[in-house]
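Residues and backbone
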Amino acid sequence: MNLSKKKVVSTVKTTLFVLMGNALLAFVVAAFIIPHDIIMGGTTGIAIVLNKSFGIDTALMILIMNIILLIAGLLIIGKKLFFTSVASTVMYPVMLSLIQRIPGIDSLTDNRLLAALFAGVLMGLSLGLVMRVGSSTGGMDIMNLILAKLTHRSVAVYVYITDIIVVGAQAIVSDSESILLGIVVLVLESLILEQVMIFGKSQLELFIISEKYEEIKLRLLKELRAGVTMSYIQTGFKGEDAQGIICVIHPRKLYMANEIVRSIDPEAFITVTKIKEVTGRGFTAERRELEFGKDE
C-alpha cells in the first residue's frame, strides 16, 4: 500500500472513529447522565462545581478551559490532536442537541443504578474509540493524553485520576447518591477504556528454555510463521550456559505453539506473558516472508 493510500485510509478511519465516539458520548449524556442527575468528570464537572460555588458561568468556564487545553495539546502532542479535538468540540454539542430531541430518550430507564452502569460502559467505549486514533473529545481528555505522553503511562490511569479529583470536588455540591453513582460510572469508564485501547493489539510472549532449542526454533518459524529471538542465558541451579527462545504470537496460536514445543521436548520450560501492544515488522509494519527448504 503506497503512502498516499495509507494516508487516505488513516484519515477516513480517524474521521469515523471520532464521529462514532462523539455520537455515542452524546447519547450517553442525553439518555443517562442528564435525566438521572449523575455527576461526571471532565471540564463539565469542574465548571459545575465553580458555578455552584462561585457563580461563574458554566459555559464560559468550559470554553476557557477547553481553549487552554487545546493550546497545550497543540504544543505537546501535535497538530493532529489539535484539529480533531476542535472537531470534537463542535461535533459533541451539536450531536447532544439533536439526540436530546429524540422522543423518549430521557426515559429509557427509571433505575438510576442501571443508568449509571450503562453510562460507564458506553462512556468508556466512546472515549476509547476516539483515543485509539490519537484524538480526543476535547476538555480533560487532552490533559489525560498529555500526562500519558509525558509519563509514558496508560491514558486510562489518568482518566481515572482526573475524574476522581473532579467527582471528589463535586461531593461538596451534590447529594450522596449522585456521588456514589458517579463513582460507579468513572470506574467502569476507566476499565472499559483500557480494554478498548488494547483491543486487537494484545499478543502473547512465550519464553522457552530447552536443550532442543534449534528444532523448536525452526518449527515455530515454519509452522506458526512467527518470528523468534534467541537469548543467551545461564541456568540458576547448575550455572550452565543455555539459549532461550522469545516468541510473540497471537493468543489463538498458543495451543499450537505448546503442542509444537511439547512434541519436541516434554520437559521444556515455558512461560507465557500477556503483551498489551506490539509494534514493528510482522505486526504494524509489513511482514517479511522467509522461504524454508523442504524437510529432509
In short: The first strand starts at residue 203 and ends at 209. Strands lie at 203-209, 228-234, 241-249, 269-275.
